[in-house]
Design brief:
By secondary structure, the chain is of the alpha+beta class. The protein contains four helices and twelve strands.
Amino acid sequence: MVQEHMQEPMMSLIEASTKEFGNTLVLLHSLGSSNYRIEWFSKMTGASVSLARLRQGKYVVIRKWATSRNMADVSSEFDRRNQALIHFLNNVDVIRAKEDRVLAAKQHCVSLFTKHEGLKPITKCHFPKPRLQGAIGKDVVIKSKLGDRDLATGVLLQLVGNQAEVQLHPDSYAEQETDSAHRQKFYAKQVYLC
């Protein structure tokens, strides 16, 4: 259902708001008179992360993987704009990007967001870098809470608060019977790069 909203014919790119930050493009799309989509596209990974306002009080953040990854999109819905913005900024691709360019791109996203939400501009932002942000899309191992044994392996899909959503590798869920076992959330402190 979310993808249907994202593919409406009235969506149009606002060229003047498109900016390049090294290997990252930040684009702004209009979704009608008061709705919009901010897109962070990584030339390095071929993936994009978008924050869209579908209507007043309804936001969605969607990660579209590069087609070569053959992975389903990941989305999260929000009813509070600040939560949506924080989730978006914590899940953009930062792989092989210089930190100053990442910070400038994030600041541009905040500027687009505040402008289209009718908020006062925020000129100086502090962007904490989540421990696993650079690992999104990479293979990870999930360890027990004590860290003494490996529980599973998979691909890190997104960071959700203090949790990490992981698409488990087949050998990690073979014993479980449900499809929901393919994607699970774990405390981020249990997730490590392979």
